[in-house]
Amino acid sequence: MKVLPKIEKITEKKLVGMRINMSLADNKTAELWRTFMPQKKEIKHQINEELISLQQYQSHYFTDFSVHNQFEKWACVEVSDFNALPANMETLILEAGLYAVFNYKGINTDTSIFQYIYGTWLPSSSYVLDNRPHFEVLGEKYKNNDVNSEEEIWIPITNKS
Fold first, then answer.
1. CATH code: domain of residue 107
2. Which of 20, 95, 130, 132 has a 20 to 30 A CA-CA distance from 11?
């Protein structure tokens, strides 16, 4: 597998959604999205129809990796402002910064793309991980549990010093 990302600098984004603490060993992603999706229509000022699946990791998450490490998982959308926040929803500011953006096609439970990104592409690139959220953009071509599904994987990076 040789997939080269686009390198993009994003501006700050306003996100509204729900979050849950979980680990890869105790994956609660489906539960989070089952709770979020029925209430998504209540979110005002959505910029587009794209869904964002976001992970916030502690700074040592990857250096002391274990499937039992906890992280924060978000199901959210981008909004133009935080007015009229629905009940049970929270806000998150996604900081501006540099990202490696991988276009992925395949089933969402196949982890080989992440093994490639963190194990092959990143170590051989001129970048290192930055301690900002990682996220996936689930656009109109995203189909849950479908081999023809497409999504963008956004990995926060910074130049090696």
1. 3.20.80.10
2. 20
| Signed CA dihedral, 46, 27, 125, 103: sign only | negative
Confidence (pTM): 0.93
In the chain, how many domains are there? 1
Torsion of CA 120, 99, 59, 112, to 10 degrees: -30
What does the CA dihedral 43, 141, 134, 32 come to, rounded to 10 degrees?
A: 50
Residue 10 lies in a domain: yes
Residue 31 covered by a domain:
yes
Q: What range does the domain containing 128 cover?
A: 6-159
Helix (H) or strand (E) holding 33: helix 29-36
